[in-house]
TrEMBL record:
UniProt-listed GO biological process terms: glutamate biosynthetic process; L-glutamine catabolic process
Reaction catalyzed: L-glutamine + H2O = L-glutamate + NH4(+)
Keywords per UniProt: ANK repeat, Hydrolase, Repeat
Pfam families: EF-hand_14, Glutaminase
Lineage: Eukaryota, Metazoa, Chordata, Craniata, Vertebrata
Name this polypeptide is given: glutaminase
UniProt source species: Sinocyclocheilus rhinocerous
Amino acid sequence: MLQFRASVVLKELIQTSPKRSISDIIRHKKTLPNAYFYSAAYQDVRISKLKTVCNGRPFIQPLAGIRFLCTKTEGAIDPAEPVKKDESVQEATADKRRKAGILPSLEDLLFYSIAEGQERIPAHKFITALKATGLRTGDPRLKECMDMLKVTLKSTSDGVMLDRHLFKKCVQSNIVLLTQAFRKKFVIPDFQPFASHIDTLYEKARKLSGALKSFLCLFAYMDHRMMSLVLISVYSLHRHTVGDTKVPFCLQSCVKPLKYAIAVHDHGTEYVHQFIGKEPSGLRFNKLFLNEDDKPHNPMVNAGAIVCTSLIKQGAGNAEKFDYVLNFLKKMAGNEYVGFSNATFQSERESGDRNFAIGYYLKEKKCFPTGTDMTAVLDLYFQLCSIEVTCESASVMAATLANGGFCPITGERVLSPEAVRDTLSLMHSCGMYDFSGQFAFHVGLPAKSGVAGGILLVVPNVMGIMCWSPSLDKLGNSVRGIQFCTDLVSLFNFHNYDNLRHFTKKHDPRREGGDQRQYTFGPLDYESLQKELALKDTVWTKVSPTECNEDSSTTVVYRMENVGDGN
């Protein structure tokens, strides 16, 4: 069985064994968090005292600073064992666990933290608390939980209240994710204050006025007052939306880093850069100009993007190539909206004389792979520029890049690490047309803009952002988008070099309360979360069995240490 035992020194001091079943502690009339005596509340205790709790059985308060050992011998119940569907078996297993004295379930601990001493809670209280963590009820990872909640409420007499058993039934399928959310174990622990800052920056940028400048006649009729912003944090999938987030718009040049990523994913960096360079050009994005090796300077200018288009699904027809890229982008977007604007495609092709000139120049310089049909490549190039997204779906694409190629919604690996690294590198140095140097200097983050008004911004390992406003500056970048990105990095330490030692401090949303770095985020296992929650201010670490003179063949030993200010 799982038991707590004092050290040899403590035994000699008090001449008794403080073995005590945790299940008895849980049944104590006090609320659950107060029932644990292994906490930092006894910092000033100098000697152990006998406590009489539950049926008159003694319990020993630990000495301050004394290390306790938890041994798990053969035959102990594993808290991470799979849940059986048969209810009678579940009850028997629960009774066995209680008798074994193991830690309470995460579901129970979560219920007590929300209930605040009450025996039942209204469903809306759980939903409100959930939204306060930054998670959405529409999060696909919470689908089982939300579906079960609806079914369970229909079966209750009042359709509102949940007791502990009903609550546990609803949340058990997503308990690890929910526990991390309520324990603020995500990359941005205090998401609501962070979102409030984002709203302020958005409103400031939205007030900017500027003439609507468009490189396509089709875009000249768009409402220049429109603006939208969506950000999605990696893993936790916190999503914050502001403005006209459901309005579709074309990716235009924002598709360039995405198709480059696809090409590198399929062929590798070395092959792709046989045809395309890696240097910023310092020139307009649509110049007829190659580097000294007669290659396009990089895949973020038109010449490089046209050559990059020729590398995708070589030998296939345009229809197959387009479907391949479209489906790839849908995977990056977590199957959210990705469409196609035929009107934009026709407008691109009718006004594409400069791109045709670039295409023939590339053909003359033998920049394409052998056997390439240049006119077919240009047709596909125009089609890919006409792919339509919303701010919501494009932000998931950005979050996939921020997440190392894993889509944060589906959890699927879409891009190889090599493709993500190379794409972000070129977005950082070449992604903002001939404003790229200034953007890298002032903002210091990978980004790509498009003449439809979008800016795809990536904060690696933190979040992906799509900001859209069709009012452009003379370089083809969104006026309001540039302002938002600049203000974002002025307030938060997202610039690549903000974290240098002795640098001027900014807000760090990755720290809880702005004081303490949160090192623990991402997937955790059930057992470790259970222990951390139950024991509050303590952490568990495996230690050598020889430290407690136990037989290493049958015992797993954990040391429980007080960590003071915490992890």
